[in-house]
Amino acid sequence: MKLFYHIGKYFILLWLIVQKPESASIYRKQIIAEMDYLGLDSLGIVAIISVFMGAVVTIQTAFNTDHPLLPAYAIGFATRQAIILEFSPTVISLILAGKVGSRIASEIGTMRVTEQIDALEVMGVNAAGYLILPKIIASVIINPALVIISMFLGIFGGYLASAMTGVVPLSNFMYGILFEFSSFDIFYALIKTVVFAVIIASVSGYFGFHTRGGALQVGHASTKAVVFSSIYIILFNLILTQILLA
Amino acid sequence: MIRVDTIWKYFEGTPVLRDVSLDFEQGKTNLIIGRSGSGKTVLMKCLVGLLEADKGKIYYDKHDFSAMSFRQRRVIRKELGMLFQGSALFDSLTVEENITFPLNMFTTMTPGEKRKRVDFCLDRVNLGAVHGLYPSELSGGMKKRAAIARAISIKPKYLFCDEPNSGLDPPTGILIDKLIS
Fold it and tell me: Could you list the residue range(s) of the whole structural domain that residue A139 is in?
């Protein structure tokens, strides 16, 4: 029963979030600020993880497909498919759920326990809309950009691994990267990323907004935000993969 | 005028407010005095709609606030100012941004007019050059005064103050009492 209680509260919060904003210009400024906080601040970690994961995927694929019947370019092909279809949209979103989700939940949760949200509501401001909607819009805009960058850097990591270790000739690797490329794969990855962005911002916002108590509860809300965002990302990854690729 | 008509508020079955009826007349400063835990803050939160009374009604100038929807209440709330126990200043904004926040949200004032209003409000609470400071850089008394400045910036019809001088030294407490009265 508690599950239905939370689902109901989550959809009530979503309804509040999509109410007409009091001042469009303030919301616009908030969206730009959130794009900086939630997106650009994450660029470093996304870049580092993508390069190393791309390199590791290439090396592991090379060692596990060492068979005379498998062409060498298959390593580049497998690296590209792994990076574009799964690693960049899903794993990067899981990493963002940890980094950005905890930040959103703890920021909004602290505002709740220090009565800042009450102050907004007494003023007549739709606190849910003002605090969460710009974060959702900013995530929907910036997360696909981060994922595109991650795709490039992941493949670049694979290229570096090929060049530095010689597990596959560079010409074969590049041939594999370009082999039977389908732009639908990028579309599929971006669709997933947008859904995951909404999940991260709204679920984390939900746990932050409904925090009660003090510092300890803010910590709990932050942990719950990361755990539940990650679970929903995995769940929707399966659902979207079935819908889009079946 | 605010009329409280026989309100009750329970927390987990325990009544905190029992059959409370009050009239707050326009132009008067009203005090609610009671022991710690007697429900003063709960009553005030019921008055501004942060908590819902389980029974009874609250009227603002004969408008039934208890029966209003979220959107209808926003109209009344634009006429309210509230000073919270912990000041509740937005810690990501400077003092000036805190005071201009309701002006940006609900008025069409020009930047010059807003600046004048900020200076006026800060002057009223005897705060000088704190425009660019963040709440974490202010003392307890300065935070309370900045919060009053924010509460009065939009010229509210009703000003609610929850323990405005608690935790302050006597001279600062007296200063805040004078500001409110």
Answer: 37-245
Q: B58-77: per-residue pLDDT in tens? A: 999 888 988 888 888 888 88
Flag residues of chain B having pLDDT under 50: none
- The CATH homologous superfamily for domain B1-77 is P-loop containing nucleotide triphosphate hydrolases (3.40.50.300)
Tell me which H or E stretch contains B15: strand B14-24
Best of B46, B50, B166 to mutate (most A CBs within 10 Å, chain A): B50
Contact check, Cβ <8 Å, A118/B50:
yes
Give the residues across from A183 on adjacent strands: none
Q: 10 Å Cβ neighbour count for A123? A: 24
Residue type, A31: I
> pLDDT class for A147, splitting at 50, 70, 90?
very high
- pLDDT mean over A26-43: 90
Report the domain count for chain A: 1
- Going by their DSSP bridges, the two strands B2-11 and B55-60 should be labelled as antiparallel
B1-77 and B81-181 have identical folds: yes
Contacts of residue B109, Cβ cutoff 8 Å, sequence gap at least 6: B103, B117
From A19, A114, A122, residue closest to B50, measured CB to CB: A122
Asked if A123 has any chain B CB less than 8 Å from its own CB, the reply is yes
Mean pLDDT of A78-82: 94
Residue A46 lies in a domain: yes
Q: Domain B81-181 is of which CATH architecture?
A: 3-Layer(aba) Sandwich (3.40)
Looking at chain A, which residue has its C-alpha nearest residue B88? A116
What CA–CA distance (Å, rounded) separates B102 from A123? 7
Chain A with chain B: Cβ pairs closer than 8 A: 61
Q: Which tokens go with B129?
A: 């050059």
